[in-house]
Amino acid sequence: MNESGGAGLARAAAAPRAAPPPFEMLVSAHGTAVLRVCRAMVGVVDADDVWQETFLAALRTYPTAQKVVNWQAWLVTIARNKSLDHLRRTARVPEPMDTAGDGPLEGGDVVVHAVEAGETAAAVWAALARLPQRQREAVVYHHLVGLPYAEVAALLGNSEAAARRAASDAMAALRALLGGDGKGHGKD
């Protein structure tokens, strides 16, 4: 998240509930995270289309979204639903991509750093595509988007413990697929 968008959203969130932040601020602050979700869910080829569908759907419902507390979680939920709709329509498996998501990622894990460096991005995205859907979603929402496990659980429709376990299993599988030893690279 860029600093100016994040600070602006914080100020907008502190304002009275009647006025949500300007939609452009949401796109600027959360567009990269939404794109990462789309890329992980549908692959690089279709991610831009699903990203656009996500923000069009968000814009359509934005005037009635007065009670949204966490805008990033709201947008990620829409992205997830649009991605699932797309996958149902096309019945395709995500394809590896050539470049990492836009902007730096946070975290200390070898998998996150591989995506950030862009050196093995195609291998990371291919490995993500090989994970079971629930594990893929859990690792993307928590490690790449940065949502807390409680919100990941809500998106996945399970408990916080189950979300932690799915993300942990996914990270272990990714480390094995990518040849990382998993030692000293951060927590799941």
UniProtKB/TrEMBL annotation:
Residues 123-174 form the RNA polymerase sigma factor 70 region 4 type domain. GO terms for biological process: DNA-templated transcription initiation. Gene3D superfamilies: 1.10.1740.10, Winged helix-like DNA-binding domain superfamily/Winged helix DNA-binding domain (1.10.10.10). The keyword Transcription regulation applies. Pfam families: Sigma70_r2, Sigma70_r4_2. It comes from the Bacteria. Residues 26-92 form the RNA polymerase sigma-70 region domain. One of its GO terms (molecular function) is DNA binding. Keywords: Sigma factor, Transcription, Transcription regulation. The keyword Transcription applies. Belongs to the sigma-70 factor family. ECF subfamily. PANTHER family: RNA POLYMERASE ECF-TYPE SIGMA FACTO, RNA POLYMERASE SIGMA FACTOR RFAY-RELATED. This is RNA polymerase subunit sigma-24. It comes from Arthrobacter psychrochitiniphilus.
